[in-house]
Amino acid sequence: MFTILLSLIYLAYVLTCFFRGKNLAPGWASIIFIVTFLGGVQLAFVGILGEYIARIFEEVKRRPLYLLKQRPPAEEPALR
């Protein structure tokens, strides 16, 4: 998400330079913006995928959610 934010800040900088009349190298700004933005999107999706795989891993281990120090006393069956 940080990379996406930086690319948007860079886009704002490039647009302000454009409207103020400063000349930037042709094509440089658009390529850098696209590469950083799409790189940030890829990083975000890899992070989401990592969270998903980590949760699957935790579930597959089949460990109990909690442990008891002692077993509760066994209930006697009701006599009728």
What would you note in describing this structure?
The protein is mainly alpha-helical. Helices cover 65% and strands 0% of the residues. The chain has one domain (2-60). The protein is built from two helices and no strands. The model has no long low-confidence stretch (mean pLDDT 86). α1 (2-20) packs antiparallel against α2. 1% of the residues are buried. The radius of gyration is 28 Å and the shape is rod-shaped.
Summarize the helices and strands and which ones pair or pack.
Layout: H1 2-20, H2 28-60
Helix pairs in contact: 1-2
Describe the structure concisely for a colleague.
The chain is mainly alpha-helical and 80 residues long.
Helix fraction, binned, reads 55-70%
Pairing-aware structural class of the strands and helices? mainly alpha
Distance from first to last alpha carbon: 66 Å
Number of domains: 1
With helices defined by DSSP (H or I, 4 residues minimum), what is the helix count?
A: 2
Main sheet?
none
Low-confidence stretches: none
- What is the overall pLDDT average? 86
Strand content: under 5%
Gross geometry: rod-shaped
Total count of strands: 0
Q: What's the gyration radius in Å?
A: 28 Å
Order of helices and strands: HH
